[in-house]
Amino acid sequence: MNFDPTLLLMGAVLVVLIIFMVRNSRKRRRDAADMQEKVKVGAEVMTNFGVYARIKMIDDSENKVILETAPGQTLTVHRQVISRVVEAPSSAPTKAAPASKASTQTKSAGSSNAVSSGPQYGERVAKAAPKRAKRPASGTGS
């Protein structure tokens, strides 16, 4: 029987693929268990459809969670709808502090000493109309 290096290479690739699949599966299982530990009454969560709320009550027998979106406003959702637990922001100061109304008004007024920066996150900006490329003249050449 002859030694075939391509068969050995395909076997090695298959082994590496299986190892990565097992590692990924373990990591997902561990992350899911960590999130379930964090899901408890009073935790701030985000749902799959983007609603931020605070957990008011958990019913383990029916897998339901009652979320409070605003004072007096509640939603009843399935437990799997919770996509992540929102962590409280750290107490360390951030590098870019949000601009106050006063500094925004001075920027818009055109003050010469105001430093112009890009739009803030979530701020709407006017889109410029796209420029049309000139089309070559059609017809027969002369």
TrEMBL record:
The chain crosses the membrane at residues 6-22. Keywords: Cell membrane, Membrane, Protein transport, Translocation, Transmembrane, Transmembrane helix, Transport. SMART domains: YajC. It is a single-pass membrane protein. One of its GO terms (cellular component) is plasma membrane. Residues 87-142 are annotated as: Disordered. Its main location: membrane. The keyword Transport applies. GO terms for biological process: protein transport. Residues 88-112 have a biased composition (Low complexity). It is found in: Cell membrane. This is Unannotated protein. The lineage of its organism: unclassified sequences, metagenomes, ecological metagenomes.
